[in-house]
Specification:
The complex is a heterodimer of chains A (164) and B (169).
Chain A: H1 3-22, E1 28-29, H2 31-38, E2 42-48, E3 52-58, E4 65-70, E5 75-77, E6 87-94, E7 100-107, E8 110-117, E9 122-126, E10 133-139, E11 145-152, E12 155-162
Antiparallel strand pairs in A: 2-3, 3-4, 4-5, 6-7, 7-8, 8-9, 10-11, 11-12
Chain B: E1 12-15, E2 27-31, E3 37-44, E4 47-54, E5 60-61, E6 73-77, E7 83-90, E8 93-100, E9 106-109, E10 116-122, E11 128-135, E12 138-145
Antiparallel strand pairs in B: 2-3, 3-4, 4-5, 6-7, 7-8, 8-9, 10-11, 11-12
The chains are: A alpha+beta (164), B mainly beta (169).
């Protein structure tokens, strides 16, 4: 294949890629963020804001972990005190400041709701009252309200908590 | 519904306000960025349907554009609740859509055929969205820009543009 043919084919591929991107309803992948994400293995439970992305990632043969990506640097930040070898994260949410993370995790065959303060490197277990099994969590971006899906007596319910 | 203030716990807690149909299952809660609105999934005539409520009063806000596209899943709200992103049923597939409550417009998000969305999270400013996609048996997150597609919905004082008719209080 001649050099001219190669360049021509490259231009066609580029034009086709642009056309397909245009057909995705204005949806454009943020490659500088998706690149580090692809290196995390399987990932789920996203919680996104303009500065942070919290998620749960797992690689074959290793335990699932909560990850917090700093969108300004497109890189994970350390979360000392949050990921524990004896627990399995189920759902995570982060506030706009990247300061508070709400987490539902399984530990010792029980599910628990935890609030983690990153600046304090401290986690606090939030009691579920009346007793129930927490599953999925949502945190308002201002970090003041938490909603958690709880299973009680065969019924799914939503508990709301205002955080101090 | 007011908050109960007599708990020994440092957290003020309350159940989500009822939806008017007695005891029913509520799943997949999602709060607006300012915590004023709550989206969740309930059963309506055997179909999983998203409802939007004011968190404190429990008042249900209309979502007319989303009728007949159940089952709904994975709701996510912007800062002031102008945008509601969620997964709806489109033919035999799940599709991510964003409803603009200010204009009544609905924005479908088209993905390559091999990628099935499972869960999503809309950034509170409405300028990006994270999609959990299943492709060939693996779950991957991808983040997409919505800049140019949606006006920002930022916290008061940070709002860059208004646009559309005012939201219902």
């Amino acid at each position: 294949m001649s050099k001219r043919t190669c360049i021509s084919a490259g231009l066609w591929v580029g034009a086709l890629a642009l056309l397909l991107a245009g057909c995705q309803g204005g949806l454009r992948p943020i490659q500088q963020l998706n690149q580090p994400l692809s290196g995390l293995g399987d990932s789920q439970s996203p919680s996104l804001n303009s500065d942070w992305l919290a998620l749960i990632s797992s690689r074959a043969g290793s335990r699932a972990q909560v990850q917090l990506i700093d969108r300004r640097r497109n890189a994970p930040v350390p979360l000392p005190g949050l990921n524990r070898p004896d627990s399995l994260p189920i759902s995570v949410a982060v506030d706009q400041q990247g300061e508070r993370l709400a987490l539902v995790r399984q530990r010792d065959d029980r599910s628990e709701l935890v609030i983690h303060r990153r600046s304090l490197q401290a986690s606090q277990t939030v009691p579920i009252e009346p007793a129930g099994v927490p599953q999925r969590v949502s945190l308002s971006a201002d970090g003041r309200v938490l909603a958690v899906e709880v299973s009680r007596a065969g019924l799914w319910q939503v508990d709301l908590l205002e955080l101090p | 519904m007011g908050l109960s203030g007599c708990s020994l716990s440092p957290f003020n807690r309350q159940p989500a306000a009822p939806t008017g149909l007695g005891a029913e299952s509520r799943q997949q809660p999602a709060l607006s960025g300012d915590g004023r609105l709550l989206a969740s999934l309930v059963d309506r005539g055997g179909r999983t349907t998203v409802i939007l409520q004011e968190r404190r009063s429990g008042r249900v806000l209309p979502l007319r554009q989303l009728r007949n596209r159940q089952p709904h899943s994975s709701p996510s709200l912007s800062w002031n609740g102008r945008y509601l992103a969620l997964l709806v049923q489109q033919g035999g597939r799940r599709q991510a859509v964003i409803e603009d409550r200010a204009t009544g417009q609905q924005h479908p998000l088209f993905l390559p055929a091999a990628q099935e969305p499972q869960q999503l999270s809309l950034a509170p400013d409405g300028q990006s969205i994270a999609l959990e996609l299943i492709n060939g048996g693996s779950r991957r997150l991808q983040v997409f820009s919505l800049a140019g597609m949606l006006e920002p919905d930022r916290a008061p004082g940070l709002r860059e543009s208004g646009g559309g008719t005012p939201l219902q209080p």
